[in-house]
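In response to reviewer comment 3 from the previous cycle, which asked for concrete evidence that the modeling workflow produces usable outputs, we include below a single protein chain processed end to end. The sequence was submitted unchanged, and the resulting structure tokens are shown without manual editing.
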Amino acid sequence: MNKQNMHIYKFYITIFLLSVGLISFFLPKAKYEGTGFISQLKVPHSTSEWSGQDVTEQLNLTPDSSVFNFISDALAYQYVNKQGDKVLFIILDAGNFHNPKVCYTSAGYKIEELDDTEFQLQNGTLRTHTLLTEKGNESFLTFYWISIDKDIAHQWIEQKLKQLYFSMFNKKRVGLMVRVDIPLSKNDMPKSVSIAKDFIRSMSYALDPTYASYILGRH
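The workflow returned the following structure tokens.
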């Protein structure tokens, strides 16, 4: 398939997905029923370098709320290392993936989309979206990715095609949005990125292999 035909092909797929999206927008919004994956998930309370605590309730990510009816379940842990660096690790079991930019902007944050970041894992490489988030004197980096049945869906069109496939055939799938938030250390972005890389690599070793590929993708 030549480049021109490829562009036309992608254009028609995009139009089709937008049409399906518009149709679903006007249909009644049912509560998303997940797979129960997060309730089975065993996230380590500590790794070789990090210790954490469950902060899900404090963040008020309540699946019963109409605001979060696209979420079946949520989990959030805050980790700290020996140097006092903090990381917020969030996993959402979601039926419809929302760009964090939308949530942050509506909450009054200024958002800048940065280049993707690559993380070296135990068995491969993970590429994530990266956002710089600022509000008043607060600023932090957000790294996020979408994992659908162990496959990382990096582009919007990949996510929608997978969602469409599973919904058309009424198939259950584990669809997760995973997010890592790190305070920007005195406007030192390289240091914050380095902290994120250390945390994600450490987590890739600490996670139970049964769950690791669902969260970090298969490599």
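Residues 100 and 106 are 10 Å apart (CA to CA). We consider this sufficient to address the reviewer's concern, and the full set will be provided in the supplementary archive.
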